Amino acid sequence: MGNFWQHKRVFVTGCTGLLGPWLTESLVRKGALVVGLVRDRVPMSNFYLLRLESQVIVVGGDITDIPLLERTLNEYEIDTVFHIAAQAIVPTANRSPISTFESNIRGTWSLLEATRKSPWVQRIIVASSDKAYGEHEELPYREEMALSPTNFYDVTKASGDLLARAYHKNFNLPVCITRCGNLYGGGDLNFNRIIPGTIEAVFRGTQPVIRSDGKYVRDYFYVADAVDAYLSLAEHIDQSSEVAGLALNFSNEEPITVLDLAAKILKRMGREDLEPKILGNASGEIRKQYLSSQKSRRLLGWLPRYTLDEGLDKTIAWYRRFFAERNRLSD
Question: Within a 10 A sphere around the Cβ of 105, how many other Cβ atoms?
Answer without folding.
Answer: 20
